[in-house]
Design a protein that fits this description.
Layout: E1 9-12, H1 22-40, H2 44-57, H3 67-73, H4 79-86, H5 96-103, E2 108-113, H6 117-124, E3 135-138, H7 139-142, H8 150-160, E4 167-171, H9 174-183, E5 187-191, E6 202-203, H10 206-214
Parallel strand pairs: 1-2, 1-4, 2-3, 4-5, 5-6
The chain binds magnesium ion.
Length: about 220
């Protein structure tokens, strides 16, 4: 990736890029099935089967990623109380804050995530993460989409008042974080923490991003 002189804004994906999946996994795979098991008097394994079947049946529902929706639907009690008990599982990758700290003031920093607001807010509260961003977009809540496609990136670019070459997105999903923004004219880098991909626009951790921008 060459000629980053015009770069004005850097946008980050959240999950898998800045934040780990521990909180999400605990909600979907443990907390919701455990609460459902308790309410119905089921063994946990049986509850998981039923709950996971319901997840599959409703895939694509506009509130599919909203834990509040599932707490209502399965009558599991207060999602806020459950979220409070799991808040400690909202964690950032060790390179997240140092990277944002290094880039703050030099670029406008943006977050574009398909995370639903309830998860997003828990993660933005970790170590002051939310304070680093000039703009935050939770696509299910702010842009009416469960995924990040080219239209989403086009809308964010317009909202930022920038041309594509002035904006760079970084994330861990080849389609949603690289192909989609490129289709909207953005620059994009793939974060591959597992190190399974090679290429000029692939980075292994976020410190590589800082190094490239300093070069
Ligand atoms: Mg991701």
């Amino acid at each position: 990736m060459t000629n980053l002189d015009d770069l004005q804004a850097i946008s980050f994906d959240l999950d898998g890029t800045l934040a780990t999946a521990e909180l999400d996994d605990a909600v979907w795979f443990d907390e919701i099935p455990a609460r459902y098991a308790a309410r119905r008097g089921l063994a946990l394994a049986e509850s998981r089967e039923l709950v996971f079947a319901d997840y599959r049946a409703l895939r694509g529902h506009p509130r599919w990623t909203d834990m509040g929706f599932w707490f209502e639907r399965l009558e599991l009690g207060d999602w806020r109380e459950a979220a409070e008990g799991l808040r400690h599982l909202a964690r950032l990758y060790p390179d997240a804050l140092p990277t944002l700290h290094a880039l703050r003031g030099r670029y406008r920093l943006v977050l574009i995530t398909q995370a639903e607001r309830k998860f997003l807010d828990l993660k933005l509260a970790v170590e002051g993460l939310g304070g680093y961003f000039d703009a935050v977009y939770a696509t299910p809540n702010d842009l009416g989409s469960l995924t990040k496609d080219a239209a989403i990136y086009g809308r964010v670019l317009a909202a930022l008042g920038l041309a594509g070459a002035q904006a760079l997105h970084v994330g861990d999903h080849p389609q949603q974080d690289v192909e989609a923004p490129r289709q909207a004219g953005w620059r994009a880098l793939l974060l591959d923490r597992a190190g399974s991909r090679q290429g000029p626009d692939v980075i292994r951790d976020l410190r590589e991003l800082v190094a490239r921008l300093a070069a």
